[in-house]
Write a structure and sequence with these properties.
Blueprint lengths: L6 E7 L5 E6 L2 H9 L14 E9 L1 H13 L2 H8 L2
Antiparallel strand pairs: 1-2, 1-3
């Protein structure tokens, strides 16, 4: 059986309450990488990490565009997007 994957954009809240935005095909696996210190340099040493938002985007290009939009948002808007 062929598995169809969809790219997602996600937001992670770090222990210092900062937010990290990224994209991934498998968000759970990517979060495990972040938790293990093998993800983005920004999240290293900022654990524990909590996944607070995930949005399916379809293609990688769509996910990158959405990530760029989210990264440009004010913190208050990002928190509102997450329902925090």
């Amino acid at each position: 059986m062929i598995q169809s994957w969809s790219w997602c954009v996600y937001l992670v809240r770090c222990a210092d309450s900062t937010l990290y935005c990224g994209i991934a095909l498998d968000v759970e696996a990517r979060l495990q990488q972040h938790q293990a210190g093998k993800g983005a340099k920004y999240t290293r040493g900022r654990g524990p990490l909590e996944l607070v938002y995930r949005e399916p985007c379809g293609t990688k290009a769509d996910a990158l565009r959405r990530e760029r939009t989210i990264k440009r948002m004010r913190r208050a808007d990002k928190l509102r997007l997450c329902g925090l």
